[in-house]
Fold these 2 entries.
Entry 1:
Amino acid sequence: MRYCRVCGESTVLQGRHTIATTAMVVALEERVMSETFVVVGGDAAGMAAASKAKRDDPELDLVVFEKGEWVSYGACGLPYYIKGEIQSLEELVSVTPEEFREERDIDLRTGHEVVSIDPDERTVTAERVDGASTAGRDESTETAKHGDTVTQPYDHLLLATGAEATEPPIEGVDREWVYTLGSMSDGKELREYVARAREEGDLQQPDRGPACQFLEDCRGPVGVVGGGYIGIEMAEALAANDFEVHLFQRNDRLLPVFSEATSEQVADHLREQDVVVHLDSAVETLAGTDGDNGDEIGAVVTADDRVPVDMVLLGTGVRPRTALAEAAGIERGPTGAIATDAYRETSVDDIYAAGDCAEATHVVTGEPVYIPLALTANRHGRAIGQTVAGTPTEGGGVAGTAAIKAFEVEAARTGIIDHEEAREAGFDPVSKTITAKSRAGYYPEGGEVTITLTADRDSERVLGASLVSEYGEGAVHRSHAIVGAVTEGTTVSALENYDLAYAPPFNTTWDPVLVAAKVLSGSLD
Ligand SMILES: Cc1cc2nc3c(=O)[nH]c(=O)nc-3n(C[C@H](O)[C@H](O)[C@H](O)COP(=O)(O)OP(=O)(O)OC[C@H]3O[C@@H](n4cnc5c(N)ncnc54)[C@H](O)[C@@H]3O)c2cc1C
């Protein structure tokens, strides 16, 4: 929040000081003109904030510290880069460092890690990072040396430090050929692994014993640990490169934040694509070659199984990067991520946090949640940029809306689907699952969409939904209407009367969303 430096009161500038005397306004403007907005982290949240603040208030000094060499990149595209559908990491970058510096007038310092914040002095200290190579995007990091430090004053500070991929607390995660996928460099390493395997061309491997038993021709086998978004996207990326893929999930279903119907359809489809899905299979050890002890990964071991593998990808979740904030005395919320108010300001004045390092507020429960996704990072970053530039802006809540493609199936979810979670939030949940045609029956193409819609029995409020269809048959785009209903607190009968677009190539007269609402509404009656 911008505070008045003339009288010292914590009143936003657009408040009553807009009626201050001319002299005060001039003094105020002079102070504002020299203000510095410092951003830590140069990806979605950080660069959205920096760009918006600079656009709205060109007089602001913008300094962005990014410890890596990449900025404004789409990590979401990494599985498709590893798969081979995207040819270079550069294609994942929306705006280059040069464009930020030259066209947007942002002082972007890549290869700089912020190591401490002093909220009393209003400064951050950054160290230049050794080895922030220029292999990627940014020439300015070439001479970076560890140990060079810089102290930067700020008037406003944004922590957009993101999250890091977690490793499960099991033996063997540090063996060679065990990967996580959280950064551009992880993506590069994985792509190199796939490319090497393809070059070696080791498609027939008859002497592998139990390995490659499920496919006639295969590479690997490889293990993917975790049946969430990244695990499933990577299973597809690896299978598309002819690896025999074993997917290990400790729960009894994949994608546990979706409905059971969605989980089942996705698991069935993965099996059709020759991915070996191991449910109820918590991984106990990543054993080495050489009598289990070698440095290289040799097998994934669960309570019931031991699957020989050449490589393992861990897709077991992320953890918000909060160490910097904690050391500065900034509070974390109940989820462990950085707590913020509606303007994304932290417990320390003029320090904001957004994106994967911070909490957000759930639109249904009003409670803090940690759901690290790209749109939230962009949206909250942009709102902070606007606030810092003088227009206090709330970033809005989150509904936990997410989408995934698994080979030829697409799925989306939004809101609260899980009955236990709904009950904990004080609702009496009722769900109905329907399957309906995705396009008019007489239209030459088409398939089916399955929707599980959940509502509160008493208020009839739409709480959430999970949708699944063949890829291209509209589960994801259909979810958007339900996101609106969830966000606005609409009742099921109101959703039933939504005036959705209809034409035979896109849906039936009663779109599957309306069918789901009708069926659920009937059961509430
Ligand atoms: C493989 C993969 C697939 C994904 N797919 C999807 C998807 O399909 N849909 C979706 O919504 N989301 C997806 N996500 C999540 C999405 O990428 C994140 O939500 C988004 O990138 C968060 O942006 P952010 O700016 O908060 O954090 P990040 O993108 O993590 O950026 C944080 C930046 O801060 C830098 N940094 C950290 N600490 C410091 C420091 N002390 N000093 C200087 N710099 C620092 C880091 O180097 C990093 O560049 C995916 C993520 C991954 C890894």
Entry 2:
Amino acid sequence: MKYKPKLMKKIDVIIIGGGPIGIACGIEAKKRNLSYLILEKGCIVNSLYNYPQGMTFFSTSDKLEIDDVPFISNNAKPIKSEALEYYRRISDSKNLNIHLFEEVTAIKNNSEAFQIETSKSSYTAKNIIIATGFYDIPNKINIPGEQLPNVSHYYKDPHFYAHQKVIIVGASNSAVDAALEIYRKGGDVTMVIREKGIGERVKYWVRPDIINRINEGDIKAYYNSEIKEIKEGEVIINALEKTINIENDYVLALTGYKPNFDFLQKVGIEISNDEKRLPQYNNDTMETNVKGMYLAGVVCGGMETHKWFIENSRIHAPLIMQDIKLKK
Ligand SMILES: Cc1cc2nc3c(=O)[nH]c(=O)nc-3n(C[C@H](O)[C@H](O)[C@H](O)COP(=O)(O)OP(=O)(O)OC[C@H]3O[C@@H](n4cnc5c(N)ncnc54)[C@H](O)[C@@H]3O)c2cc1C
């Protein structure tokens, strides 16, 4: 049941998404004395919380810092638990106005202000920032059997897969990390890779490891190959135009994720018609074609989800707040 609206006053800016960039936006709003509220559908930095248990960032910790607050890590590259600690401590120490487990479900634009509907309440705001990331919607492979319970688009932890036959679809960082971890915990790993090799963007210190494991036969890999069907206990792939049946217990389809385009379009943001599906926004201010509605963080890249990350999208927060403050 919905609560009664708590905030009848028009808020200067509502920030949708409490990821690293949503938090950065909240801090910048506060610094400029703008009234703001961050609405997050899960826990603080919900996407990061759902990343694989043992993940290591490719960035050094200084590149993940927001508002110049030092991110102290004991590692050359920080690990997930350190990042959770860092972003939680920042949001606490800055005393950010953030509502957790409150999902934004609709936005109405009535020229005067935005009306924001959530799973718990409704609000009125002069400006909106959409910083909703991309991790909620996996790129489906659209084959028979994809809905089976032994198929997942998210990888958490290798222990579960010990002594199991695991097919990993994809050859990007996520797929490679999962393949190596599962192999090292005793899983029997086969990678099915559409391209002719391991992804070029795989972390430079991990690439030689996966290539050596494949060359030595520790991990099997089918290049130029596609998974065609998943059945109970078996997967059918097309490898170099041959059909091969492989015995299988689990499939991890790690073929990437995409922003919630339906949501962006429903709120009036124009999306390019090509395969990049780029949302329309002004590079200097991050304002979209909808006046008073801004985009921040990885959501800006459309299907190019590698384009924006924490390192290079932290800057969106001050750009947006300068613009909002200027118009006030
Ligand atoms: C395995 C992995 C490793 C990575 N390593 C690095 C790295 O080393 N360096 C780097 O810079 N980047 C890295 N990235 C990318 C980085 O994590 C993302 O770019 C970053 O999380 C983007 O932050 P964001 O705030 O834009 O989005 P997110 O962190 O995805 O946050 C979006 C938030 O919005 C919330 N949300 C979504 N819809 C709604 C809604 N309707 N209502 C309310 N809340 C909503 C989500 O729950 C989520 O918490 C990595 C990504 C992955 C997957």
